[in-house]
Amino acid sequence: MNSKTKAVFLDRDGVINIDKSYVYKIEDFEFTEGIFEVLKTLQDRGYKLFIVTNQSGIGRGYYSEDDFQKLMEYVLKEFEKRDIHIQKVYHCPHYPKNICDCRKPKPGMLLKAKEEFDIDMQNSWMIGDKKSDVEVGKNAGVGKTVFIGENKEPLADYSIDSISKLKDIVF
Asked: Known catalytic residue: 11?
């Protein structure tokens, strides 16, 4: 029996919340329709949940690390109210031109989670709304990638137009 953890890695903006560009205030944060039901079902099926998000607004000076942490504290509390446990939030605060190993599509955030939580990458999923989300999943050796958007992403294993359609793939 495989004792390793199976995980679902979720991008934040555009997957967990409606992407309004550089969201860092609670009053601007709006959860996507169906996110709570989908994550609860994934968790109930034995998946550990992780958020992996590029947050270049920090590197660009639009908001601070503290602003990001305060918002994520609110987000995690909203999930906990619904018995959804996010194992950990990984974020890249760097400006896109900075050289780092964490900015998607580089696999640093996912590989760190793999190491810290003994994750079975082959039996895990990466869900995002940008090509870089799909690429990071592939680069980290994640078994399945899902692209959420109006168009299809050829690199993704699955393309869907909303998070609620995930149940048609995973469940």
From this structure: yes
